[in-house]
Amino acid sequence: MRKTVKLGILISFALIISLFENMMPIPIPVPGVKLGLSNIVLLVTLLMFGLKEGFIVAVFKSILMVLVSGRLGALPYSLTGTMFAVVAMYLSHRYLGRWLSLIGVSELGSLFFNFAQLLAASFILNNIRIMAYLPVMALMGVVTGYIVGITSKFVSDRLKKGDINVG
User: Fold this and answer.
1) What is the DSSP letter of 24?
2) Three-class secondary structure of residue 51 per DSSP
3) CA angle 129–26–33, rounded 5-degree value
4) What are φ and ψ of residue 51, in 5° steps?
5) Could you tell me the maximum CA-CA distance found in the chain, to the nearest angstrom?
6) Percent of the chain, pLDDT > 90?
7) Are 113 and 36 in contact (CB under 8 A)?
8) What is the mean pLDDT of the segment spanning 130-147?
9) C-alpha dihedral (97, 58, 65, 107), degrees to nearest 10
10) At a CB cut-off of 8 Å and minimum separation 6, what does 156 contact?
11) How far is C-alpha 103 from the chain's CA centre?
């Protein structure tokens, strides 16, 4: 029961962060670029619980976000990007964690998120040329992945110390 409550709290945090992020204007003239701040919650969930719980938080956050925002057409992009990011972050932390910091793990998550969204777009729109946008998205993802990684490290360190109590 406690685990379910904690996951519910994490889903709520991710949704609130996503809603806040959607209201923030990004001063970068690149369509589709977001900070991806809810990935902080996904990365912390992976660290606290594991892959299955990371998927649960990711799926519920994506579904709830499209329902709350009314952007139902965004669901395939959101789910695809989030699933790729969660898997990439989990595997890189688990198997490359000795060599990668949480910043590196977050950077890989960002790269896979962008790749997956563009891949989904190329399938949905039946246009592979959309993948040419990947270098621009990857460059923006380096910056956003760094921010998410630094923040995730801060939050996970506070959780380990007991400064923050989730449930």
Assistant:
1) S
2) helix
3) 25
4) -65, -45
5) 49
6) 66
7) yes
8) 91
9) 20
10) 43, 44, 47, 48, 102
11) 13
- Ramachandran sector of residue 164 (left: φ over 0; alpha: ψ -120 to 50; beta: rest): beta
Least confident of 25-29, 96-100, 161-165: 161-165
**How many Å apart are CA 93 and CA 73, to the nearest integer?**
31
Name the strand (E) or helix (H) holding 41: helix 38-48
49-89 residue pLDDT tens: 999 999 999 999 999 999 998 888 889 999 999 999 999 99
Q: For residue 75, give both structure tokens.
A: 């669901």
Statement: residue 166 has pLDDT above 70: no
Residue 32 near residue 120, CB atoms below 8 Å: no
Burial (Cβ within 10 Å: 0-12, 13-18, ≥19) of residue 92: buried
Question: Which alpha helices (H) appear in the chain, and where do they start and end?
Answer: 2-23, 38-48, 51-69, 75-96, 102-124, 134-161
**Coil, strand, or helix at residue 80?**
helix
> Given this model, what pLDDT does residue 96 score?
92
Cβ atoms of residues 44 and 7 within 8 Å: no
Where on the phi/psi map is residue 50: left (φ > 0), alpha (ψ -120 to 50), or beta? Answer: left
